[in-house]
Predict the 3D structure of the following.
Amino acid sequence: MARLRTSRQLTMGLLGTLVVLYVSLLGMRVLWPIDFQDAIRHEAEMRGLPPDLVAAVAYAESRLRADAVSPRGAIGMMQIMPATAMWIAESLDEPVPSSEDLANAKLSLRYGTWYLAHLLDRFGDTESALAAYNAGPTAVDTWRASGSDPFPETEAFVKRTLAARAIYRFYFAFPAVVRITPALRF
């Protein structure tokens, strides 16, 4: 009888632990969405970037929303400014995309990863490249030359991106988590 009670308690404890773990994973999916995981992985590989970094930038820019538009006019999941998109299109020898085109997740990811790879090559370190992604390369050149601090918004963007990167590293290391938990957006 005591053995049966102990076995039942262990089973209930294990089930309780699994429920708490699953609810925690659902909470992660709400707080840190991971839509377009395959497209993120593909575009990151095409540019030699870690997929967790790309996902973290998309999170920090738009919470992975393809239809996002910033107050300053940046468009899409990777929040590409139309002028930057024009320059990227010319560099890739592609037609200049429309605003509607930039709201396409795959195009936004392709242009955003190209631009991020370009900035990493130019600045040589992740934090400077992220600052340039947010504020523009000219601003980073100015901050470096003068020894001044970045805009508070840019500092917050870099910190938010680097913090989110750990979560996205987990998602890409354990893709089964994404398969067993539904995408939840509120």
Q: What stands out?
A: The radius of gyration is 20 Å.
